[in-house]
Design goal:
globular, five-stranded mixed sheet, about 220 residues, 6 helices, alpha/beta
């Protein structure tokens, strides 16, 4: 169960970019409260050599221990790739951690349920590209981009996803893909959609997109 979340923070305790972070605060939920249980020095912002940066990321992951959720306002390519490869769940957030820790915790719990559903259902073999969760009444859907592109050779991720995203006719959309399309983050930001990228297998990624405006 997720109960520890690591956050890159600045001198004011606000979440910041990994390159600008002064430290990493590891929060733990005890009862109904979140508390800082340890604070780690963060040196990525002052290291220019890529090999040194890589080693520093590995040291940080080791120091995080059982904490597998990592939050920053923005990730550099090297940090993101290294943490993702090591199986951490990465979140991009803004503001004071106290306002988003509970949200991340609940979404992590929900994602574990979804990942279990994906692995133990026939979503990869039944030919369906969009599956409704809860009979569509809650506005939650899974879109299997891997299957869609496999059965429709030549269709691009933009052609498949942009019509769905632009219409925003969902409360939550979960995309299963073999890699994260490089255009997706920019589009989601422009559409004011909240999102999370997670790796659930060797060549399997899940993108969870939330549309708080409803449909």
């Amino acid at each position: 169960m997720v109960n520890e979340i690591a956050v890159c923070v600045d001198n004011f305790g606000e979440v910041t970019e990994d390159k600008k972070a002064k430290s990493i605060k590891v929060f733990e939920k005890r009862g109904t409260e979140w508390r800082v249980i340890r604070e780690l020095a963060f040196k990525f912002y002052c290291i220019k050599d890529s090999e040194e940066s890589y080693l520093e990321v590995l040291n940080i992951v080791q120091d995080l221990g059982k904490c597998r959720v990592f939050v920053a306002k923005k990730f550099s390519d090297l940090v993101h790739a290294t943490l993702d490869k090591m199986g951490l769940s990465l979140w991009k957030m803004d503001g004071n951690p106290i306002y988003f820790l509970e949200y991340i915790l609940e979404q992590e719990k929900e994602e574990k349920k979804v990942s279990k559903f994906i692995k133990h259902s026939d979503i990869s073999d039944n030919g369906q590209f969009i599956i409704s969760l809860g009979n569509g009444e809650c506005g939650r859907y899974i879109l299997n981009l891997k299957n869609l592109q496999k059965d429709n050779i030549g269709i691009t991720s933009k052609q498949a996803l942009r019509p769905v995203l632009n219409k925003k006719i969902f409360n939550e959309l979960i995309i299963v893909c073999s890699h994260i399309p490089n255009w997706l983050e920019e589009d989601l930001t422009k559409l004011n959609l909240n999102f999370q990228f997670s790796k659930i297998g060797k060549n399997d990624y899940v993108v969870v997109i939330n549309n708080y405006g409803g449909y």
